[in-house]
């Protein structure tokens, strides 16, 4: 979308954000789903003057940006942008990575307690732990909804 329009918005997540906001926007790709479909409440976002949605629930500000330059980094594209609009939505402090890790992200759950030497499959996205020698090929993480490919095998 950014390459096609040359525009984007950035919403600044606040310390009041719920884990559901992180799951909805961070644990799934916009290539596979419309993040602003009916599963995300219309009261939680608004459309900015540039025609692009910005999140207003669990955020404290948003920026509208115009792409000035694109840099191909192989697996990603870096967009250098010029701000065209900015608004402050609240004075609630912004959420840092440390605050997210300590206060918002659920602590990893374990399915059972493994005896020493048993196999654990740990989700690389959210930290959920599945206990068992073999993980089913169709296993979906109950927290972040990622599949078996996003788990690593650990022997404790």
CATH top-level class of the largest domain: Mainly Beta
Structural class, please?
mainly beta
CATH architecture of the largest domain: Roll
Largest sheet: 3 strands, antiparallel
Percent in strands: 25-35%
Write down the overall geometry: globular
How would you briefly describe this protein structure?
By secondary structure, the protein is mainly beta.
What are the defining features of this structure?
156 residues, Pnp Oxidase, Chain A, Rubrerythrin, domain 2, 2 domains, three-stranded antiparallel β-sheet, 8 strands
Set out the fold topology:
Elements: H1 2-5, E1 7-13, H2 19-26, E2 45-47, E3 53-55, E4 59-72, E5 77-88, H3 97-104, E6 119-123, E7 129-131, E8 151-155
Antiparallel strand pairs: 1-4, 2-3, 4-5, 6-7, 6-8
Folded structure, characterized:
By secondary structure, the protein is mainly beta. The chain has 2 domains: 2-101, Roll (Pnp Oxidase, Chain A), CATH 2.30.110; 106-155, Rubrerythrin, domain 2 (Single Sheet). Helices cover 13% and strands 33% of the residues. The chain has a 3-stranded antiparallel β-sheet. It is globular. Its cofactor is Fe(3+).
